[in-house]
Amino acid sequence: MSTADARTAENRREPGIRDRVLILPSVICSHEVTEEIADRVPGAVATPHDHGCAQIGRDNDRTARTLVAMGDHPNVAGCVVVGLGCEHVQSDALAGRIADRGVPVRELSIQSVGGTDACLEEGVAAAEELRADHAVENGGPDLGDLTVGVVSTDLAEPTVGRAEPLVGEFVDRVRSAGGRVVVAGTERVRAHPDAARERFVGDREAIEELLSDRGEPARAPRVAREAGEYAPAEVGRLWGEGRIEEVVAYGDRPAPDSGLALVDSASRFEEAATGVVAAGAHIVVHVTGDGIPTGHPLAPVLKVSATRATLEAVGADIDVDARETDAAGLARRVRETAAGEPCRAERHGVTSFAIERAGPSL
Amino acid sequence: MNTFEGYRRGDGTVGVRNVVAVMPLSVAVSAVAARIAEEGPDRVHATPHQLAADAPEATLEQTRRVLEGVATNPNVGGALLLKLGTEAVDGERVADAVAAAGRPVETLSIREEGGTAAAVAAGEEIVDDLATETAGARREPVDVSELVVGVECGGSDATSGLASNPAVGEACDRLIEAGGTASFSETPEFIGAEHVLAERCASEAVREKLLAYVERREAAAELMGADLRGAQPSPGNQEGGLTTIEEKSLGAIAKGGTTPIRDVVPYGADLPTGEGLVLMDTPGYDVESVTGKVSGGAQVIVFTTGRGSTTGNPIAPVIKVCGNPETWERMGSNMDANASTIVTGGDDLETVGERIYGTILETASGRRTAAEVRGLREFAINELQPNELGYFEGEPDPAEAGGS
Amino acid sequence: MSDDRKAIVLDGTDTVATMLEGGEVGHSLAVEGDVELAEEIPFGHKVALRDHERDEAVRKYGEAIGVATEPIRAGEWVHTHNCDSARGRADGANADAAAGGGRS
């Protein structure tokens, strides 16, 4: 049993801050059907993705692990797994792994129920059943109860100079309140290996593996390029003052006592958000100088920006103006959002879901 | 019966649908594109995808090629390109290509528009205008030589190689005899059958190109340090009686018919009209593979299945041909053509092939497929991954093999 | 006889036939030669038409589709438990058999 399994088996029903029924496709071939099911059931969300078949080795494992983590997320009240039937990531196996963690699960595949019409009908019924079985009150959690995900997707001057230090201070508050922080974005670590080694207190092998040159172009080239142009301290502020205690593989959860963990994910927002959500983040704080508007289906995403042009252009999509907010203010917004107040992306109904790939489709 | 009713476009190509496409340049605006399309009339379809605003150069180039190819597919009557405004992919070039293809095109930037809510409102208006502007298109009789048919298989089983694939191959032979173009792809499913395909290549140059593409796809196993057997054949393939990739491939190549292979083109690249049988280098992953051929200009996709694949596409009608009698019985509502009578002994290949050829022409003329009726429009763009770019860096491009 | 099960042999050089209906132990095949099913074989799956030695090529469509990973006797079910691909392997195994399969 992996660490992740052990942890969640004990702590299942860890309180969430949203109460969603997840309609989870095991493969791209069932993704339209899952979206349609989610559309028809209040409180249901889908995580349509491009994966689940024609992947091999660690790429395939990563997809399956990430999908299990979505089903097992604290914001998920119950999960309907929908497959096509002939794919590699089989829906019944996936459902079994999620159910093992104590999550109420229903499973069906388009081929076994006899087509998309029947699948839609049965899927809606299953989702409604899960919905009816489960309704919890959101008690308005404190910072110490939360796992917060942190993603920053550009290194523009206002981002590094203003927004990231603000988030870093907030990260320290979460940790001193007893909460946990999971961060994504390996470019700034790779750009400054010595600083990273110094800051890291966990398993040396994991950090060296992360730092090793894989001989590949960066997944987010602009961030990778710009990370090298700053001093290590400048790009390190985002994660607060504390030490990084663990490097977590994409799709995995950190150990329960890791206060600050780094998810092995590049700084592409949609993929990185899934990485931190898989690592247990109830809520994601996204620093964006570009004004990327998308949320995540499972966790609310607070958009933080200090870039004037962006705040002027798409201010309506940004939750926190970092120029005019301090760490206490950001903490307040996080608490309010955790208590149920919808973030901008939730209000606008724009969520995207993506999983970072480890290799090509076959 | 060698004509169909199609829409003649400004650039001379012929569409079989009159789609208004809402196309995001990056995943950051995919959800907004979907929202805009949802509010529009029936023939407004989004092409949401998961490719990022920033990526390695070669990845961006392939993404641009596919966006441009899809946006200029003859089935697209008009297009709205949607961007956040910070994408590294060259959206202007895509817009120029659509305009040059004689189709109305608009670009909408979320940053310029003032956020998602404002962009959705503006996008809905643009889409309504595009719908009005393209509403005047009328179908006219067109010779089948203007038709490019993409052929795909997915959810294969043993019946695919016995019934649906050879029957579709028969239909392809008819199409090509009448002057049309057929294209099949899924390079991993050439493995084990490439020597058969190589013999059918029209020239030595094409033959070398084909073998170079196959070699590169097979090297994915080495790249990932894992067997191709982990993905091919899939669990459903195996349950359906397919034991090895070689067996799957030998059955799969039948779907292109028996005519000479004129060329092999890269993922998403233009498929020439009136050229007979042309292959495309794509992954075996159905949805990405279909997108590649739609980007190449295929107006119709014929998709064989044994286990029962139900996927469609936002731009091209996808005709599902089923070779498994039990699947036909159980999932008939998601299928368009029955090839299972070959297995049960009711029909011969020739009869079913002719029937499928008829279905292709009827579909081209406007008959809606099961996936269209149900609004199933799966879409995905194959993304060149950093590890494959690193792995193959400095190696010759298969497209350059054979000196062509 | 009524216990004949429909099967198809796609090429004269094939060493397996494909079942066009499922069969049980003792059923005979409605194909040339005298083959009796040694085990239950589902629709669409393959039956050995003759004995295969370990590492011998299994042929369908007139081509090698893999190699026998253990001796297979006529009438036995041929599938992933006793037949393996020679291609796309991380370990490069069976490459000789692949070459024998006619890779150009």
From TrEMBL, chain A:
Stretches assigned to the D-galactarate/Altronate dehydratase second domain: 13-132
Cited InterPro entries: GD_AH_C, GD_AH_second, UxaA_altronate/galactarate_dh
Keywords: Hydrolase, Lyase
GO MF terms, alphabetically ordered: hydrolase activity; lyase activity
D-galactarate/Altronate dehydratase C-terminal domain ranges (all copies): 240-359
Pfam families reported in the protein's UniProt record: GD_AH_C, GD_AH_second
Family in the record: Belongs to the UxaA family.
Name listed for the protein in its UniProt record: UxaA family hydrolase
Automatic annotation (TrEMBL), chain B:
A molecular function (GO) term: hydrolase activity
Domain called D-galactarate/Altronate dehydratase C-terminal: residue spans: 144-383
Membrane spanning stretches: none
UniProt domain D-galactarate/Altronate dehydratase second: residue ranges: 6-133
Record carries keyword Ribonucleoprotein: no
InterPro entries: GD_AH_C, GD_AH_second, UxaA_altronate/galactarate_dh
Top-level taxon in the UniProt lineage: Archaea
Family as reported in the entry's similarity comment: Belongs to the UxaA family.
Protein name according to UniProt: UxaA family hydrolase
Organism per entry: Saliphagus infecundisoli
